[in-house]
Amino acid sequence: MKATNFVLDAPALAGVSAGRKPAPAANRDPVRTRPLTLLQRLDRWLWQQHVREREAYLAQSKDIFELEARMRGLERAVDSRYY
After folding, report:
1. Which of 53, 57, 80, 52 is nearest to 67 (CA)?
2. Span between the terminal Cα atoms of the chain, in Å
3. Residue 11 CA neighbour count, 13 Å, CB half
4. Stronger pLDDT, 69 or 29, i.e. the higher one
5. Domain boundaries in the chain?
6. Report field, pTM of the whole predicted structure over 0.85
7. CB within 8 A of 57, min separation 6: which ones?
8. Residue 39: count of CB within 10 angstroms of its CB
9. What is the tens place of the pLDDT at every residue in 5-61?
10. Nearest residue to 71 (alpha-carbon basis) of 82, 43, 47, 60
11. How far apart are CA 22 and CA 43, in angstroms?
């Protein structure tokens, strides 16, 4: 098996070796500093509820085989499709 050799002189890493500090977090993504809107908070809460219900359902499995079957069922369910 061949080990991967990393090139440290690559143009993408030129600023890393020069000792420059990264930009402050406030300058990188100004959208994240804004407070969430009511709909965004509601969406986040509903998603967390969905995840909790799914985790509780999976936690009821008796063994690894049942857990895998439940996971397959959730993956193949109609509501998990995103297209």
Report:
1. 57
2. 40
3. 0
4. 69
5. 11-80
6. no
7. 70, 74
8. 8
9. 555 555 555 555 556 666 665 566 655 678 999 999 999 999 999 999 999 999 999
10. 60
11. 32
Question: Strands (DSSP E) along the chain, which ranges?
Answer: none
Q: Which amino acid is at 50?
A: H
The answer to whether 26 and 33 have CB atoms below 8 angstroms apart is yes
CA distances from 38 to 17, 43, 46 (A): 43, 9, 12
pLDDT value, residue 78: 77
Cβ–Cβ contacts within 10 Å for residue 38, how many?
A: 7
Dist CA 76 CA 8 (whole Å): 44
